[in-house]
Structures are given as C-alpha cells and as structure tokens.
Amino acid sequence: MSDxxxxxxxxxxxxxxxxxxxxxxxxxLWPSRQGILHGIKTIEKFGDQVRITTHCNESFMANNSRTSxxxxxxxxxxFAKACPVCVVPEWKLKKYSTTRFxxxxxxxxxxxxxxxxxxxx
Length: 121
Ligand SMILES: [Zn+2]
Prior knowledge:
By secondary structure, the chain is an alpha/beta fold. The protein has one domain. The protein contains five helices and seven strands. The chain has helices spanning about 5-10, 20-25, 70-75, 90-95, 115-120, and strands at about 10-15, 30, 35-45, 50-55, 60-65, 80, 100. The strands form two sheets. Strands 2, 3, 4, 5 and 6 form a five-stranded mixed β-sheet that branches. The model has no long low-confidence stretch (mean pLDDT about 85).
C-alpha cells in the first residue's frame, strides 16, 4: 500500500472558510507566533472574542477571524514543534497532520453541537 493511500483513509476535510473559533474548538490546538503548537485547555466566549487558555497556562484573547495569523497558521500547519509543557498527545498531532482544508469540500462544523454556536445566538 502506498503512503498516499494509507493517508487517505484517515484524512479529514474542513472548509477553508471555517470560523476560527469552530476550528479551535474542534482541533484544540493553538499555534503561537513562535511556531509552537500548544494544547488548548479552555475556550471561553466574550462577545466577539474568545479567551483561550492553554495547558501551559498561557491565557489570551483571540478574534474570530478566518484571515487572522492563527487561522492561517492552523490551516497551513505553520509550526515547528509542539509545546513541551502542554504535552500534546501524539494521536492529536497525528490527527491534525492528516486534516486537510479545502475550499469546496469538507465540514463547516456549523451543524455540530458547539458551545460557541449556541453562545452566538
Ligand atoms: Zn503550551
């Protein structure tokens, strides 16, 4: 079996235009400006922003923008390594690495039970 075939069995597709919050809630990973991938412990909604707390106890606000640095970094997988303090499990990194983003195909996650969708109403 070729590598490509093996990978296609576990690929997940999300829309490129997916909201950042939905993506964060699903993936539970945060790419820092330094190129380090952190595990997200909690996401709390405050109006148009969310407060994200990582497992290494960093806390910060983020805007729900599809074009923000974080959204692009997540879609394009711009990270050098996983945070050693967050201890992101291997299966989670693997799952993320096989996730693909497509303009025309994939889940928008909008129909799923999301605290963020509920809070937005
Ligand atoms: Zn961390």
